[in-house]
Amino acid sequence: AQKVTQAQTEISVVEKEDVTLDCVYETRDTTYYLFWYKQPPSGELVFLIRRNSFDEQNEISGRYSWNFQKSTSSFNFTITASQVVDSAVYFCALSEADSGTYKYIFGTGTRLKVLA
Amino acid sequence: DAGITQSPRHKVTETGTPVTLRCHQTENHRYMYWYRQDPGHGLRLIHYSYGVKDTDKGEVSDGYSVSRSKTEDFLLTLESATSSQTSVYFCAISDRSLRNTEAFFGQGTRLTVV
Q1: A100 vs B contacts (CB less than 8 Å)
Q2: How far is it, in rounded angstroms, from Cα A70 to Cα A72?
Q3: Which of B45, B25, B114 is nearest to A103 (CA)?
Q4: CB-based contact (8 Å) between B9 and chain A?
Q5: Which residues pair with residue B92 across a beta bridge?
Q6: Best mutation target, B101, B105, B111, to test chain A (most A CBs within 10 A)
Q7: In chain B, what residues touch A102 (CB-CB under 8 Å)?
């Protein structure tokens, strides 16, 4: 069965600090996709990034970077030089592809508070 | 932004009454999903659809039913609302093409059962 664990319930940092949000997943499929979503205080869910199981290349987008390691079943998200606008709940998600059902399973989320 | 509209956006209803939430998309995506969001539980899948009239249960489907008679509409019905169904409900869509595997979400519906 597929499962996503975000062990960090809440993290508080001071502006300009770097912060890493952890995500550990479980799946039996060989083909799967991993995602990160941001939910700001306004409530909408914003897609940030996807990763395919066959592509372990890490990615950087501005202050955001993602580290995908199949060996540890982890897909961690780092924000460099955090800003107050980064305050949000961040969700990691997994979608298996082998079964063809394409369900998206989410972790419980990590609430990030960036203090000025 | 993906064309997803949820209605209503807010609803207060009484215990025991039926409630229907609507998700409408203009993207012609094949896959549609209903999630509920509760503190400490993140987003949990209620039901999903992989085509017109093709639906299946998610992890928290008890007390909910769905219907999809057209590609663009996915309805979630609470047959007899209970206080435990007070939540924020999100609809999501996906086309699962090789280029686009991510899901896009509607704005959410805040449902309060009193």
Answers
A1: 50
A2: 5
A3: B45
A4: no
A5: B33, B105
A6: B101
A7: 31, 50, 94, 96
B10 touching A, CB under 8 A?
Answer: no
Q: Which of residues 27-86 of A touch B (CB under 8 A)?
A: 33, 35, 37, 43-45, 47, 50, 52
Mark A13-44 as b/e (b = at least 16 C-beta within 10 Å): beeeeebebbbbbebeeeebbbbbbbbeeeee
Record the tokens describing residue A100, joined without a space. Answer: 């063809």
CA distance A97 to B61: 22
pLDDT < 50 regions, chain A: none
pLDDT reported for residue B99: 64
Main-chain dihedrals φ then ψ at residue A109, nearest 5 degrees: 90, 150
pLDDT class for B95, splitting at 50, 70, 90?
confident
